[in-house]
């Protein structure tokens, strides 16, 4: 087999033929589903006369083909593994095809497949071509009419996009439903679901008075787990009306929960399909984190109805046009609904850990890549999260009013069209009058920009001189980078007053919190009339997705932690302070010298634990140490063992010094009020569980007793899971095993809880965990065919159990590679994602580098899917 070839953005050409209307009929059968397609087609006015018609199609058995009712002869068309070509077609015509496909053998979960006995589809990005021959590209938009035929007993429910217009029974116990979707859409938004499902129904009245029926379809046993998703959906619908003036546009909106799904969820028009983990919640089965995740994913998919569906992408290089914008929208929604500062802290700490690592690794790519081999590999943190950061910068640059005018213009001007990132930015530029040409570089340049900042206060004349220097490191294929337009939000905090000082720049007074624009490689900003020596608070709210270095002393950081008016930077100062202490301890561990705890960190924590803090949710974040992954991201060479040891050392020392404070914090936030996923309760549980983590770091009898009691009380999953995790991670097997066993037996029937049971065990720091991973892979609740299980067991082990994954004998790497090799055949998309930790070899010592590369080589020797091929090639390049 020859190597798969890349697709280039510069090769984009408009389609020669359009589909104006698509009629589909599915006759469902697990092994032999028949799909009839009637495509109403016409040649594009600009296309040349006589252009051949090319349709995408994979794994389809062609049964019949006709144009305008005339069957085609063998010599009038050709079919290979990827497409069907008809050399000569009229200007306008009807194309009829019938194909046979096998949903039961579709383990890739792309196209039409079966999940727990039901039929469902996943078409983004290129799954529709596994259903029927079609111009499977987002710039072909058609109205759809879909008839689904199934067994009345095993598929009583038959769903597709749009509105149901006809239903009836057929001979031999079969029945059908026909659905009409009046909104032109690309094929990737097509969806069909058929099975034995139950629904929960609600109603929503839009701002302009349209009555919408809302349905969530689940397996019967999950009927009690939809309340939160439904409430979230209604909040999201209302929010989009207020924040963006966007209303829903059909009479029916459906969500379906499926167990086997590659991603979180999918925004198919009128029929969103969700990974069950992203929609089902119950206080006893889902944690606060899961409740919040469901809320944000329900909102995200709903928001796509405008940012993605009504206005879609011209081609897949524009993916961030819909994803970056929609993530930004869901982030703002969650911030408005919950604690805004905590939402920002959570998003940024995840971003700086995972996206920074991606941007620094061999698969680094711009938000708009210029080529790809497999688009399925580009649903990345860069496209989604960095894309969202870039939209956030735009909104801050132009300001909220112009941003709203710009988005209104975008939705109005391009409604029903497939457009580009330039089209979006042009609307923002038009609405604001601000020149965004330099800003466009954010879309084409990969890598995380680094800013080196220096400041100097001149006591004599009261000037504060700030020098900013930017540089974006080289990334694969991009060696020279240009200076970006970087908005830096800042304040100067007076060391005497502890207050933000008034800012005057070039004679203009700018209040006490402002945004300066870094556009040059190096730029100097002189603030005048600064009445006292300040500590600068830079990049407030993480105003740009960059790494900012400033030579802060520990006193400066302790000062900002206590005084910064920006909640985000107060938290960040604490993280920076902890990082300085951790750096010393990592060095001490590596050099074999005794570790000494920085008392400033202890005192800063003591202060936090005893000060009047109004925002308890932020406090919980401030008391949380940087994760091992984040610490690793800050080190030039990652020493996993030293990081683990240093972080544990800090935890233990803090716990010993502040034991009574943590106990008090625990008791003050312990409550048996009925569970609600509201911000107050979530903050209280967060604080209580942070306290318990510290107490368990000493593992004395009192702490163990608290954890056991919290587990046994069985009040809600957040508390139970946290207690079980701490017990499982403790050195005391006598307490871990009984708890794990009880939990595993109690929840054996619930796949989503079993996922958590897997994840808890494989993060154990003890070295025997590898045997446990191997053992759990044979557990009846585990299956390589279910992506949630693979993520919970293998993904969690490789991504979060750093000391054991990076074992010096290479056993962790070997285990991951074995799984990747097997999944390469079953589910290439999941296999390719799973390799990520191995691709980061360059950050480790030579021994580990060699071991990791050897596993990548072993994978490369297999017959690879394009997905895995692309990732492995880049990782070994
Ligand atoms: N478009 C989906 C989302 O962001 C994600 C997705 C991509 C789902 C590809 C399935 C396949 O909401
Ligand atoms: Zn999305």
Describe the structure.
The protein is α+β, with helices and mostly antiparallel strands and 877 residues long. The protein is 41% helix and 22% strand. A hairpin with a 2-residue loop joins strand 28 and strand 29 (508-509). The protein is globular. Phenylalanine binds next to strand 20 and helix 2.
List the helices and strands and how they pair.
Elements: E1 7-8, E2 17-27, E3 33-43, E4 53-56, E5 61-67, E6 70-71, E7 77-79, E8 83-86, E9 92-101, E10 111-115, E11 118-122, E12 142-151, E13 157-160, E14 163-170, E15 174-185, E16 192-195, E17 198-205, E18 211-218, H1 227-244, E19 252-258, E20 265-266, E21 271-275, H2 288-303, E22 312-313, H3 319-337, H4 340-359, E23 371-372, H5 381-398, H6 400-413, E24 418-419, H7 421-432, H8 441-444, E25 450-458, E26 463-471, E27 486-494, E28 504-505, E29 508-509, E30 514-518, E31 522-528, E32 534-538, E33 547-549, H9 554-563, H10 567-591, H11 599-610, H12 616-622, H13 628-634, H14 640-657, H15 659-668, H16 679-698, H17 701-713, H18 717-729, H19 733-746, H20 751-762, H21 769-776, H22 787-800, H23 802-805, H24 811-826, H25 828-834, H26 836-839, H27 846-860, H28 866-876
Parallel strand pairs: 2-12, 18-19, 19-21, 22-24, 25-33
Antiparallel strand pairs: 1-23, 2-3, 3-9, 4-8, 5-6, 5-9, 7-8, 10-11, 11-16, 12-15, 13-16, 14-15, 17-18, 20-21, 25-26, 26-31, 27-30, 27-32, 28-29, 28-31
Helix pairs in contact: 1-2, 2-3, 3-4, 3-5, 4-5, 4-13, 5-6, 6-7, 9-10, 9-11, 10-12, 10-14, 12-16, 14-16, 15-16, 16-17, 16-18, 17-18, 18-19, 20-22, 24-25, 24-27, 25-28, 27-28
Bound molecules: phenylalanine and zinc ion.
Phenylalanine binds at residues 122, 124, 262-263, 265-267, 300-301, 323, 379.
Domain Peptidase M1 alanyl aminopeptidase Ig-like fold: 447-549
EC number: 3.4.11.2
Function: Aminopeptidase N is involved in the degradation of intracellular peptides generated by protein breakdown during normal growth as well as in response to nutrient starvation.
